[in-house]
Amino acid sequence: MSFPWAKEYEPKYGLTKFFDEKLPLPRLVYNAVGAGYPVPRNLSYFWNFGVLAGFCLMLQIVTGIVLAMHYAANADVAFASVEHIMRDVNWGWLMRYAHANGASFFFMVIYIHIFRGFFYASYKPPREMIWLLGVVIFLLMMATAFMGYVLPWGQMSFWGAKVITGLFGAIPLVGEPLQIWLLGGYAPDNAALNRFFSLHYLLPFVIAGAVILHIWALHIPGSSNPTGVEVKQESDTLPFHPYYTAKDGFGLGVFLLLFFAFVFFLPNILGHPDNYIPANPLSTPAHIVPEWYFYPFYAILRAFTFDFILPAKLWGVLAMFAAILVWFFLPWLDKGPVRSGHYRPLFRKFFWFGLIPTMIVLFICGGAPAEEPYVMISQLATAYYFLHFLVILPIVSSIERPDPMPYSITEAVLGSDKKAVLGENAEPVAV
Amino acid sequence: MATTTGTPEANEVAGEDGVRRRDFIEIAAVSAAGVGGLVMVYPLVSQMAPSADVLAESTTELDIGALETGQAVKAVFRKQPVFVRRLTPAEMQAADAVDAESLRDPQTLADRTQEGHEDVLVVMGVCTHLGCVPLGAAEGENKGEYGGYFCPCHGSHYDTAARIRKGPAPTNLEVPEYTITDTTLVIG
């Protein structure tokens, strides 16, 4: 499971020896995030975001459990109970602002984590399973965040729930009964609020389970690295502890500075003022938008305004889900032999000048009102988005001539690798 | 392995057809457990459907005697808004002037109203796109390019007969089941 030079756990004291025999939990920790896990020595700060995402999950679970102690999932009092948390509960404001901004920061971290994966092609063999599990985690996060946003039962909560469950109504034949079944009524009401609360409490633990699988799958081939060259020898790695515990600790400190700057000084800037108006089923806010982290996908949903065989509404729904489902196929759509974008000149251009601007455009359009020119711009951006993954990436990765790569991580870091030319264990250099 | 030959399983002799009593018991037990498990799925799924108190709110009564030409009221049916409008002659003419067959969801105004009450248009105030409440029922609200209703969420325009004319919504605003006796409108 790990490299042969990984340090073995050796319990020294009576108690640790006792544990190692009865329940080798310290050994598990030592081999997972301790000195027993060798990691490439050249990881950049982009490799901090997995740990940061794990921290965000813990933060959301802890603050969420506290909020659930004071919140009432009943349509008559839900809004008031959130205000009760804000005004009456000791430190309730801190818990709620940390939870609300925690969701936003979780998504920021996860988007950087995902796009790190895009640039360094982390999804390539032998790490496909890690990637697939990651996409599953992202889908679970989206469901959890959506249901959590419904709980305060403000205007955006209510209408968000209505619009998103309305998506299921687009499915032919079973759509409408399915929507009524999901809501437990004809419009979002008590039944829907209660089940969303129940599931919002459950899903983070499902995510935690998926994260354990994600890390388990990661520890089989070990972490990738910015060169994309696999680990060959001991000089390519460092023990996770103390080297990466320190690096991740520093990253976490920077993250917390930024996070608490928002919690304390800009707690509502990422939210919508409309959600401080109690839910009103008879009046739609003039401008319904989801939370910022759903903007790109909301833009794709709204990009379809014309019927073509299927109704426009169904196309929008299909495209929105397809925009994420296409990520599942990335390990097989990217056919290039080289992982890292640093050695893929053409791939790199399409990443920085194609995919990234497209995501920014979709982001802006998703938050804009449904009118021209935003509709047309999001149509073009949606077309490019799918073109990138389904056409450009397979072609570019097939025809591209990669730049020369270092023999090993050691060479990439130190400028030369003696083993590459001299050592008795040196492998022939692949040309 | 003297211990294993001592177990009842190993000692049991298969019949002429090669089937042991134990095989039958195994299949019967697993089937019973499996069917029992499957039966439990039904209540687990069904509990999420609308409960009796939600279904009980399935009729709404409304006095439309005071509703004047050109006026509209918003009522609530199944926790969702309903728009009741008494159309003006101009609005009815505008709706009839369109070739219904050319529409996305072909219906005439007569299809969407009741005989003898062609001027009373009762529609759900739920956009058929993603369920927002369209504007246009209250005075001064945006009625869209076709003078009926306009959904602000994704820009669907409905005409004076509340038929979809422009935008992403797939069908006309839904006409619920209703009856009109004298001045009383009963929806549901």
Summarize the structure.
The complex is a heterodimer of chains A (431) and B (188). In chain A, 61% of the residues lie in helices and 1% in strands.
Keywords:
heterodimer; A: 431 residues; mainly alpha; two-stranded antiparallel ribbon; 2 strands; globular; B: 188 residues; alpha+beta; 2 domains; three-stranded antiparallel beta sheet; 22% strand; elongated
Describe this entry's structure for a reader.
The complex is a heterodimer of chains A (431) and B (188). Chain A has helices at residues 14-22, 25-33, 49-68, 78-87, 92-119, 128-150, 155-168, 175-183, 190-218, 240-265, 295-302, 312-325, 330-333, 345-367, 374-399, 409-414, 418-421, and strands at 38-40, 237-239. By secondary structure, chain A is mainly α. A two-stranded antiparallel ribbon of chain A has the order 1-2. Chain A is globular. The two termini of chain A are 28 Å apart. Chain B is an alpha+beta fold and 188 residues long. In chain B, the strands form three sheets. In chain B, strands 1-9-8 form a three-stranded antiparallel beta sheet, with no helix packed on it. A three-stranded antiparallel beta sheet of chain B has the order 2-3-4, with no helix packed on it. In chain B, strands 5-6-7 form a three-stranded antiparallel beta sheet, with no helix packed on it. In chain B, strand 2 and strand 3 form a beta hairpin. The longest helix of chain B has 26 residues, at 21-46. Chain B starts with a helix and ends with a strand.
Overall shape of chain A: globular
How many DSSP-defined strands of chain B? 9
- Biggest sheet statistics of chain A: 2 strands, antiparallel
Query: How many separate helices of chain A?
Result: 17
CATH architecture classification name of the largest domain in chain B: 3-layer Sandwich
Strand line-up across the major sheet of chain B: 1-9-8
Helix content of chain B: 25-40%
Order of secondary-structure elements of chain A: HHEHHHHHHHEHHHHHHHH
CATH class of the largest domain in chain B: Mainly Beta
